[in-house]
Amino acid sequence: MDRLNGSANLMIVSDLDYTMVDHDDPENLALLRFNALWEAYYRHNSLLVFSTGRSPTIYKELRKQKPLLTPDITIMSVGTEITYGESMVPDDGWKQYLDHKWNRDIVVEETAKFPELTSQSETEQRPHKVSFYLEKGKASKVVQALSKCLENRGLDVKIIYSNGIALDVLPQAAGKGRALDFLLQKLKAAGLGPLNTLVCGDSGNDAELFGVPEVYGVMVSNAQEELVEWYAQNARDNAQITHATERCAAGIMQAIGNFTLGPNVSPRDIKDSMLNIKILSPSHEVVMFYLFYERWMRGEIENSEQYIQNLKSIFHSTGNFVHPSGADRPMQQIVDTLPKMFGEKQGLDFRVWIDRVSFAEVDAPNKFTWMHLHQTWLDGSEGKNDARWFI
Description:
Sucrose-phosphatase; HAD-SF_hydro_IIB; elongated; sucrose-phosphate phosphatase activity; eight-stranded mixed beta sheet; four-stranded antiparallel beta sheet; Rossmann fold; Nuclear Transport Factor 2, Chain: A; single chain; magnesium; HAD_sf; Hypothetical Protein Ta0175, Chain: A, domain 2
């Protein structure tokens, strides 16, 4: 958030599984389309927040499996943990806030009296979250009885049942909605409060997000029955909440357009813009360059000298290209290597996505000249050498 000088233009707060990430889309095409959109138009002046029921352990596992961007803020464990940046620095103030009328030992003791509850894995048991599996047909009765038991023990808790199988016991002050409200107040106090906030979800534990004042909300088309029922009962007449007709990340992009929150056409949906550059935005330029590289390697565009000449015309004659290893070479030299690489990845599962694009501009009105392009490794993906200069 240090890159923001004032209010964020847009803050997207999105659940992950079956909202941002479509596990039924093996090529991750909708997610890759969203990634390109965010890095091209929003990263420099907006905030991306992932709000997930996943614990830090299985959240990090998902990041290894799917092409997820690095969020500015991560809300995990059904709103019981808030962290910041790539290094995931915890919000200690939020931890202290959740301690009120919470005693994890008592929760464990009382839930052990319900044979219907099956404990989730140890990674999902967190300081302010106790999690179980519970059959849908038994959920209503168990939730009512357990609530009474914990209340009698002097605790103020919240029980959330979602996805037709998962039951989480949290402090009353926790939950995705309460965590978001806490975060918004903190951002406003720092002068970074977003001009607009879009919350995105698909299941019961996302319902709280839509109740946060003044936010826009989108239920993706594949939202589960429990959230659709909540919407019908509580938000059908709310013009700021919509049920998308598109799945997952595509539904999020659809909502950006429906609410007129900013550009919602992904650069991945633009063809041949390397020859028809009309958008004077450095981040858009970088995204389009790497999309061109992906298409060039996959042999999806024409093997044309015009592309090479166009790149040479926008890359400064003395500009340099810095490899993640730290080695650098002249940009013009790197471009000269492209013709012999055409179609190397044709027919293969090869995609390119970039994360955390940042830029600095010099005085060059009405046109772009690339002077310095510095790549860095994604955490955990470090290469052994600089044999490959692009990817």
